[in-house]
């Protein structure tokens, strides 16, 4: 699926350490998430003229079924349009074959750069190399590919450190003894294992904490619901569940609430999705880790502009972006996929 529009998101003023240290980043974007996924909106006359002058930029995203990735993709598109390009979103539907088809089409269609959220760390490498062979720069966002000589730059959340913090908070809330389950994301995505390893680097120090189930729910809410329902049947005494993203956490919470155990089983997520942050404020979810999808997306668009319009080539290959622990104690500081004042 392709999506093209002139969507706008609310401005925000959070300064990312990365931007400060690199001296990158432009003015805060004047954007909103008003345009529904899949619905095209015409560009303003002045914007169309600028887009014609700047050319086309593709935003290839792993899925638009998850609101977090919708925000990521629309922000990248909006920032590219602000910088004078015609931007189009391609939805890979978490399928490497669909992603490969998108790359074939966009390379044949004269796109000048790709803002890329890969579907698979290994399976997506070939697509990036095809673009590089045609001198089309690729800037990875949030998810990486397992190659350091393919993408022009990779802007990535520090999932491991974020889950170390989540693990520490998990022990504070659950205690040093008890049973817990883990819902993993997509097995082929590096974020899945970075988050799991970060969490276990803390949890595994406590012999009294027993993992009774570990299953993949593919970062999907409905699968998180189904997996948690199954886990509750096999392990009704479970005390907590750690989920590799907020979509799975929200699905798991629904299963737990339906079983009448919302007050006894603690749910931990990762992403900082809007509904998860709201659920923390409502006492439903124990904690999450806030990524900053808007900042990563804007940075990728600005890197592409620097490459295409300013001739910049010396980008760092991997750029870690810090994440922040969100709990009931500080949840009022967060919202709209970032800090509250964004």
UniProtKB/TrEMBL annotation:
<dbReference type="GO" id="GO:0030313">
    <property type="term" value="C:cell envelope"/>
</dbReference>
<protein>
    <submittedName>
        <fullName>D-ribose-binding periplasmic protein</fullName>
    </submittedName>
</protein>
<comment type="similarity">
    <text>Belongs to the bacterial solute-binding protein 2 family.</text>
</comment>
<dbReference type="InterPro" id="IPR025997">
    <property type="entry name" value="SBP_2_dom"/>
</dbReference>
<dbReference type="GO" id="GO:0030246">
    <property type="term" value="F:carbohydrate binding"/>
</dbReference>
<keyword id="KW-0732">Signal</keyword>
<feature type="domain" description="Periplasmic binding protein">
    <location>
        <begin position="57"/>
        <end position="312"/>
    </location>
</feature>
<feature type="signal peptide">
    <location>
        <begin position="1"/>
        <end position="28"/>
    </location>
</feature>
<dbReference type="Pfam" id="PF13407">
    <property type="entry name" value="Peripla_BP_4"/>
</dbReference>
<dbReference type="InterPro" id="IPR028082">
    <property type="entry name" value="Peripla_BP_I"/>
</dbReference>
């Amino acid at each position: 699926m392709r999506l093209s529009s002139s969507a706008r998101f609310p401005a925000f003023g959070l300064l990312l350490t990365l931007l400060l240290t690199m001296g990158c980043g432009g003015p805060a974007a004047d954007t909103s998430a008003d345009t529904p996924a899949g619905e095209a909106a015409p560009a303003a006359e002045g914007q169309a003229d600028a887009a014609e002058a700047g050319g086309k930029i593709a935003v290839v995203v792993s899925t638009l079924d998850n609101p977090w990735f919708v925000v990521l993709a629309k922000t990248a598109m909006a920032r590219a349009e602000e910088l004078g390009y015609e931007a189009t979103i391609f939805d890979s539907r978490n399928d490497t074959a669909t992603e490969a088809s998108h790359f074939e089409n966009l390379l044949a269609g004269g796109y000048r750069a790709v803002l890329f959220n890969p579907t698979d760390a290994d399976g997506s490498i070939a697509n990036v190399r095809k673009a590089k062979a045609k001198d089309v720069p690729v800037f990875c966002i949030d998810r990486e590919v397992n190659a350091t000589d393919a993408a022009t730059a990779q802007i990535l959340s520090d999932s491991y450190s974020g889950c170390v913090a989540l693990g520490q908070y998990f022990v504070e809330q659950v205690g040093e003894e008890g049973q817990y389950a883990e819902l993993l994301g997509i097995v082929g995505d590096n974020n899945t294992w970075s988050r799991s390893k970060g969490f276990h680097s803390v949890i595994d120090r406590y012999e009294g904490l027993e993992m009774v189930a570990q299953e993949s729910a593919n970062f999907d809410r409905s699968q998180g619901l189904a997996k948690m329902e199954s886990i509750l049947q096999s392990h009704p005494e479970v005390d907590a569940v750690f989920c590799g993203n907020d979509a799975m956490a929200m699905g798991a919470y629904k299963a737990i609430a339906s079983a009448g155990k919302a007050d006894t089983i603690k749910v931990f997520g990762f992403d900082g999705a809007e509904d998860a942050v709201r659920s923390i404020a409502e006492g439903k979810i124990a904690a999450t880790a806030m990524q900053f999808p808007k900042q990563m997306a804007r940075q990728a668009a600005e890197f592409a502009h620097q490459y295409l319009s300013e001739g910049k080539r010396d980008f760092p290959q991997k750029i870690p972006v810090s994440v922040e622990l969100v709990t009931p104690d500080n949840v009022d500081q967060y919202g709209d996929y970032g800090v509250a004042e964004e």
